[in-house]
Design goal:
By secondary structure, the protein is mainly alpha-helical. 38% of the residues lie in helices and 6% in strands.
């Protein structure tokens, strides 16, 4: 049958961590989606993020699309 576990369980604490991130970095003008993104990068041990959004600066290492070069 279909997986009926609650979404919260599948996200492995993501919403709880996102609330904490949202409160901790309130001065960064994070939306809850931004906070959830940070929580998921932490959970999945992602150490760099490609984003146009400078609200992430000082929270995660952000790769800025316009500054990247490819060979």
């Amino acid at each position: 049958g279909p997986d009926c576990r609650p979404v919260r369980r599948r996200l492995r604490g993501g919403p709880d961590r996102a609330v904490s991130v949202h409160q901790t970095y309130a001065n960064h003008e994070f939306s809850f989606i931004d906070a959830m993104t940070v929580a998921m990068t932490e959970y999945h041990k992602i150490n760099k993020m490609l984003s146009f959004d400078d609200d992430f600066d000082g929270v995660v290492f952000r790769l800025i699309p316009g500054t990247l070069t490819f060979q």
